[in-house]
Design a protein that fits this description.
Shape: elongated
Number of helices: 3
Helix content: 10-25%
Oligomer: single chain
Radius of gyration: 31 Å
Structural class: mainly beta
Strand content: 35-45%
Number of strands: 12
Largest sheet: 12 strands, antiparallel, barrel
Distance between the termini: 91 Å
Order of helices and strands: HEEEEHEEEEEEEEH
Amino acid sequence: MGSLFAASRAMKLLFLLLLFTPLLGFSQYTDVINSNRPGLSVSAYAVGKNVIQVETGLRFEQSDHTLLNTQSNLWGADLSLRYGLLFEELEINYEGTFQNKNTTFTNSGLEDSFWNFSRSRLGLKYLVYDRYKDPERNKPNIRSWRANNVFQLKNLIPSVSVYGGATFNLGDNPFYIGDPTVSFRAMVATQSRLTPRFVLISNIAYDRISTDFPELSYLVSISYAFRNPKWSTFVENQGIDSDRYSDILLRAGAVHLLSEDLQVDMSMGASFKNTPSRIFVSAGMSYRFDLHTDPPVKAIEDQKAGENGGPIKKNSMQKKKGKKEKNTGSGAEDIDLGPSKKQLRKKRKAEKKKKKKKDDGVIEF
């Protein structure tokens, strides 16, 4: 009976994900830093080979539980370390949150305080499908402004990555009493570029798999880049389903790019229930150490025959004599420039002759 109830809750969670997705991101390496902050959603893309990225911040949360009659304040620090490993599609990352929680029991006036890691996990993320690997999909449509700037259904097709890792519970952790030292975590991350300014990211994760309280969660976030490319904003929805804790959270925030390798951010959020009710704010920064190098271009003598368009044919630079070939290309030569002056003169003469016949009273059949 318990397993059926758990399955029912999981189906409800997946239904919520499908409900929110329609409403609501290349090569792996980019010239500008690509951070997961300030939200908790994870991009489908890696940071790029040999790139080291540090994402850190401070947070404060106020939490009140109506059934337990408690009021809590939490201070914490977030840390994410990301490294592009071996090749462009692979990333190894560590995510940790260290918190100090001070709780007051309103009925008795007693207080309790403890600190530990509320999140500590290490894993690998691999991009299995890159929607924009084909360079043709990155080219703008020079014939249609609408095709480049307006949402189309095909833009929902995402890039997809998979994640596998472990969650660590060090010592007697008061946040997760009774959990083993190591448990397992799996996740699927998707990213869609809805328009040049809107990017949709979604995550489905199954955490603490080998414990008595496994946790199923989803994250859906949408970010928007302003006309000033140094500024962007985001809205994020998170759902958590576990026998230990279940909730739906909403976050929003803004990001400012200080340089190609440095950004700062700020966000705030809240929960949708009062067991407990949660209000939190966060501020932080992301910095990358860019050790990425592009693969060297082969020297001409090292290139294979035909690798650069094939050998140059004899007399290929000479002008062709005789009748001009009909142009079937697609470019400026295909633009309809209208009739020439000679064609216009012929057209006027034909119209004059036709008018003269009508004036002579000749009936035309």
